[in-house]
């Protein structure tokens, strides 16, 4: 088992409580890691620490066998909460901004637009895109730097069934190309169809981690964990 990313005892404290409490996960290279949990469970907090968007209180993030540093972030593509799209620019122009800032070969733009099926949008502005198209553009922007790790936080939020299916196929395709993906969601059925490994977070604690060997029983496992936490707090 080759581990790309690992957290050890990761904790995030705020004045009004603990958002993450000693969370330790292992993400294998070339796999899809499904990060599950109810809204407010701590999923986005964990992903923001991994991308160095917010500081940790304690614990470690290990990336490619060394403590995560600022330089490693270049090797991580992420959409957390929503894609950072310029609404008054075309898909091509949105990517052009990033390639200019990061000094990336412009040929990469055509490659990632083809990957996310956005090659025919022409002069259409991003603000005129459907929600599914915006999500795919966000993924293209996250892929432009050829990251080893792609983080998608609740990527199906607000999508219609067709948009969800398209996104699912895209994630499978990217995984097939060897990209390691962390997929965060509260939609169990979607994660169950895609993920190789599952982590379930509730109330800032990692309640379960293991291989996704039986997707049909995922909902029962999830509900059992959440109900147990509710009963323990009563």
Automatic annotation (TrEMBL):
InterPro entries linked to this entry: AAA+_ATPase (IPR003593), ABC_Gallidermin_ATP-bd (IPR022501), ABC_transporter-like_ATP-bd (IPR003439), ABC_transporter-like_CS (IPR017871), P-loop_NTPase (IPR027417)
All copies of domain ABC transporter, residue ranges: 5-228
MF-aspect GO terms: ATP binding; ATP hydrolysis activity
PROSITE patterns (alphabetical): ABC_TRANSPORTER_1, ABC_TRANSPORTER_2
Keywords: ATP-binding, Nucleotide-binding, Transport
Family: Belongs to the ABC transporter superfamily.
Record-linked PANTHER family: ABC TRANSPORTER, ATP-BINDING PROTEIN
UniProt protein name: ABC transporter domain-containing protein
Source organism (scientific name): Oribacterium asaccharolyticum ACB7
């Amino acid at each position: 088992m080759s581990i790309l990313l690992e957290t050890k005892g990761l904790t995030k404290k705020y004045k009004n409580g603990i958002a993450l409490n000693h969370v330790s996960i292992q993400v294998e290279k070339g796999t899809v890691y499904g990060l599950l949990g109810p809204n407010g469970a701590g999923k986005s907090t964990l992903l923001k620490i991994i991308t160095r968007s917010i500081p940790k209180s304690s614990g470690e993030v290990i990336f490619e066998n060394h403590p995560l540093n600022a330089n490693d972030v270049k090797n991580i593509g992420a959409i957390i909460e929503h894609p950072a799209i310029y609404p008054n620019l075309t898909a091509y122009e949105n990517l052009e901004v990033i390639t200019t800032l990061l000094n990336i070969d412009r040929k990469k733009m055509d490659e990632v637009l083809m990957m996310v099926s956005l090659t025919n949008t022409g002069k259409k502005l991003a603000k005129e895109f459907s929600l599914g198209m915006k999500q795919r553009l966000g993924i293209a922007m996250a892929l432009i730097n050829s990251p080893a790790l792609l983080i998608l936080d609740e990527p199906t939020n607000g999508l219609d069934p067709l948009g969800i299916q398209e996104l699912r196929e895209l994630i499978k395709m990217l995984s097939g190309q060897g990209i390691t993906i962390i997929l965060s969601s509260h939609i169990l059925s979607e994660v169950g169809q895609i993920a190789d490994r599952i982590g379930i977070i509730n109330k800032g604690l990692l309640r379960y981690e293991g291989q996704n060997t039986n997707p049909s029983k995922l909902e029962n496992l999830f509900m059992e964990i959440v109900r147990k936490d509710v009963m323990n707090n009563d």
